Every structure is written in C-alpha cells, then in structure tokens.
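Changelog excerpt

This revision adds worked examples to the README so contributors can see how folded entries look when concatenated. The first example is reproduced verbatim below.
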Amino acid sequence: MKNKISRLQIIIGIVILVVIVVIGGIFAGTKGIGSAVYANTDYGVKFTYPSDWEVIDNSANGFFMISCKYKNSASISMDIQVLDVGNVALSDYTAGFINGTLKKEKILESNDITFANNPGHEIIYEAGSANPDGDGRYMLVYTIKGMKSYVLAFSSGKEDYSSFLPAAENIISSFQITK
C-alpha cells in the first residue's frame, strides 16, 4: 500500500508540474496577466490579445489595418490587414512576398501552415531599417479565404523577439475569420 501511495503522489506531482508549465507557457511573453478580445464584424475578424497591449485602428477607405502594440514599446507590434486580392492561389501570393516585398530581406523560415482553419503560410525574416530600434525580426502569417487575404505581421527588435513571440503566437492562434 505504501508503494501505491508513493506512486500516486509522484503521478499527481507530475500532473501538477505539467499544468504549471503549460499555463506558464500560455502567458509567457505577454508581460501582463489577462487578455482582451478584438472583433470587427465588417471585416469578419476576431482575436485575443494581451491586456497590456493596445489596439490602434488604422483602417481607412475600405482598407482594414489595425496594430496591436505592446504599450511600452514602439517596436513590438502585430499588424493585421485584410486585403482584397482577387482570385489568387496561396502559392502565388507567397511567391509575391518572397520574390517581391521580401526580396532583399534575410528569410529565416518559410513554411506552409494551417492558419484560422485555412491553408496558410508563415515567413520569418530579418530586416534592418524598418524597425525604429535597429535591426528587426518579423513573422508574417497569412491565408486567403475567398478573394481576401488575412495577413498578420509580428515585428520586434531581434533582442525582444523571443520574449514576445509567445504573445504573438497566442494572437495568431486565436485569430478567427468570422465572415
């Protein structure tokens, strides 16, 4: 009986440790506790972001763009755009980023993914002058649904990238296309 109790205590201890690690991983990099929800029914998007970040709506003239920024830094942000792209394949859209917009940047990763329950793509790259704090690291995650692209772009200085990546990944994983 004593061995069974010891084994049970070990199992409970392991379960508690796993729960602590998982919960800690979910909130790592948010620099705060809690979250808020942004929803826009006109453009059909919804996502959760850390409560110590702020959402700035830069939409104008039928163009949807918002920035979700860490309040204490100009260089840490998640920009979200919904663009009319017509009838374009995801592979062609990706080629446009890699061979056009990002041609002079250092691409670290380029992977097909599932994003917002749709086929998507992720590109991680480094660039220089676009970041006010110097060299920056960026992650683009996007999908095409219908004739619209949904693009999320996380940016930070290289030194902050790993610290804020979990917060960015939480925004990305919570992103929903509702229309």
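The second example, added in the same revision:
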Amino acid sequence: MNKNSLEWIKIRGNTGYWFSPSSMAFFGTRVNWNTLTEIPSGYLFVSSDQDYSGVAWNGERRYTVRLVNRDYGIQEIGEYNQFGSLKEAKKALADYVAEHNTKKEFKFYFLTGNRVFVTAANLEQAEQLLAEGKYEFQEAETRLEGVY
C-alpha cells in the first residue's frame, strides 16, 4: 500500500501528531508505507528514526516494527529502533504475523472451473491440496488479503 491508500489516510487522520511533519522531522522518522499489514488488533508497519546529531545509535538509522492499535494508538512491537536494517525489520514483521495470525485462509477453485471455493487453514494444508492435483490457484482469488 502506498502513502495515499485509504488505510493510511484513515491511520494518519486518527493518530494525532505522530505523522505530523514536525514530529517526523524531529525524530528523523521515515515510514515504509508499503509494509502496512492488517492484523486483528490493528495494523503493523515499519518505521525508522535517525538521530542527526549522532548521539543516539552513532547517528545510524534504526528500524522499528509498530502496531497501530485501534484502542491505544501507535506502539512498538519489540524494542524501539531494535533493528539495524529494513530487511531485519520486515522479517520481524512477517514473523510476528505468522506467530500471531491464526486466521489466514487460502482459497482454491475446483479444476473443473466451478466457482466453488475450498479453503485451507494454513500453508501446509494448502500445499497438500495442490499436491493432490484436484485444485489450482486462480490469481484473483488466492492473494492473501491481510488477516480475516
């Protein structure tokens, strides 16, 4: 998702000063807009901060996985500026989703072309259904659309 997606517009409108230009400039904050991931309790995303004075983290940019909680605003998942790279933070976000998300669904069509869905509860079950050769993915219906 990009910065101007409906989700981000709602989040920025409901979180007060956090996304204000002055707050982001003060902390040297950047948001990785495309990391927004919906989970049952809100949305996860990755941001980074940099102390331009060089006092904190020797001036290096550091990354944080954050939760936009519907009740409590923006919180850190793990420690503030815990990660030294965007790649590490994205992996932590994915690991968090995998560990805390038990409602993922994988949808399949019958090979006969009928518009009937078969749902798998997890990736292992989805792979088993594919291995049996009775089902196939259809791109428009199999994308994982966040968390259900």
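Reviewer comment on example two: The longest helix spans residues 86-100. The helical segments are 6-14, 21-27, 86-100, 123-131, 139-142.
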